Amino acid sequence: MNICKTKLGDVPVTGPVEMHGNGAVSICSPSGECVLKTPIGDLVPQYSTDDLRRKTVQALSFFDSGLPRSIPLEDKTIVATPLGEMSAELVTFHPSGGISRVFPLNGKLSGYWAQEDEAKLADPITIDTPLGPITTKIIGLSFYEDEGLRSVTLWPGETVSVPSSVGDVKTRVGISFYHDGTIQSLEPGEPTVIDTFAGEILAYDSDAVGIHGDSNSLVFGKSGNVAHIATTLTSVIAIDKDGKKSVFTPEHRESICGEGETEVVPMHIEFTEKSVIIFQNPDLPPVCVPVKDHRFTSQPCLPGLAQPLGFMPCSI
Question: Structure pTM?
Fold first, then answer.
């Protein structure tokens, strides 16, 4: 057993130790119990394994300053976060030493330990957000360097009602906030009618992945305006000054189920002062429709039947 000396304390290690160019420790894996004196108090990093949740020891990582970047914890530990004390199994940090992310659980999913098994260990907690208290099961919280809440990531299957500038929205996956606490984005938990510059749009992203809640498909500007939206059930119509219509509808792709089955590709729409930018196909450039000399409207679409009737080249 070797001893790796870090700015936070000595760490018994086995295996290679990665170093920064300045000689500071970058990554190492503890092989025995130790205590690290971190900016948020004494923490015991993970050094043991088990047969189900944690088959390997997750490595510690450090910034070149010697301050911690990521610390997987040996046991559930009460840590001081900007929102108060919270039980955690993994904490990551900003270069300044403040908490970047906190995760109540940190089990490793495998063929022997499924998401459902991990979820059984998750307890609902109450979080004081800029929107008010929210009680739910969370995967993690993210904080800005100034300690403001950046995002909340929900466990799969969890939903909360979020008050927004477009009304209360049933939300899954996550919610993110600007520095001033206003909502930056959220992920609609069901098709939800949202009033936009282009008319009413049923917001829903069937491709949303709950890795983290930092960025979601329904995005708001700081004034509360809808800046980005995803839909599988609405067509957007642009009409130029001569009355010519261009209709944009969600496209289709081959389903992973195969056998000739298709599924709808969520259409993403971005609103700026100068244009409405439409992403119909993630493999192709978006279509930019100038706001000047165009008016916009929307209509419901039947994904199995509707097809785009026209395209407009980007002219910005």
Answer: 0.89
